[in-house]
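Notebook B, p. 112. Complex prediction, attempt 2.
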Amino acid sequence: MAEYGKYLKAARLKSGLQIKDATDKLKITKQTLINYESDKTEVPFGRLQQMADLYGVGIDVLTKGEKLEAKVASFINRKGGVGKTTLCNLLAVAFAQLDRKKILVIDTDSQRSTMQLSEEGVHENIEIAFIDFDSNMPISDLLELLEVSKGKFDLIFIDVMGSFSHAEATATIMFKSDYVIIPLEASDLAMGSTFQTLGMLPEIAAKRAQRELGFTPIGIHNKSSHTKESRSVSDLNGMMGLKLLENRLANRVRYKRMMSFKQIPFSFEENDEFLALFEEVKKVVYHG
Ligand SMILES: Nc1ncnc2c1ncn2[C@@H]1O[C@H](COP(=O)(O)OP(=O)(O)OP(=O)(O)O)[C@@H](O)[C@H]1O
Ligand SMILES: [Mg+2]
């Protein structure tokens, strides 16, 4: 019989769930879970999948004890003001608050918008760091920070500055990323600079593939509307390997004025469209 009870238990504890929380969600008895976790009963595959979903890990983490190393997601688009900081912030709070993930958010933007927002308070599962790209060795500082943080967090988000005065830095950040999240806004102006960003993807994907590292560029339609321009964003799906998500974010005051690193900026009764987007991002991040 397979002996991965200890991995099941470690993953459950890491996700912050007590036995009762887990058994309620999995609709099994306490004894069944204890038997799984002490290798007394074989876990059926369907159940394993359920547990992986609940704990927010891949199956390999449960069966092989694969090291739980932070996944890196960078938020990049050369075009300014498309929503890099906004999406980075929303997703960080959602993963921290709703999925109990430990998140490091690295601000690389000299405008320090992420840093400023974090001064008003930060969720207990989030830490914020700043890398000053006007300093002497920003890239090596960043690489060092990633190295020491990988074992301490579940996810590392990098909010990347829009300007391309640091083109090499942007390429390096992409190369270090499992996911590149590209906010897309429909306007001719935004598209021009967005194409330059998309153009970098194939080379990065090839370099990571040489090292057997996965790479998923994710497009998220932000500030969407019902205009013809907005429909043209869907043409970007598949371009340069981009995976365009089906859910989008419209232009809403709460994504602008109510942002916070403490909690998501709406109540659940509102059934906000962001929740559907978050579910979709989770699927990609947890299951590739
Ligand atoms: N879905 C949205 N609804 C309402 N306002 C939004 C939305 N997305 C972004 N904004 C607003 O648009 C502006 C630009 O967004 P944001 O700062 O996230 O973009 P950015 O890509 O990080 O910009 P920069 O390139 O300057 O770093 C901000 O004022 C933000 O509050
Ligand atoms: Mg920004």
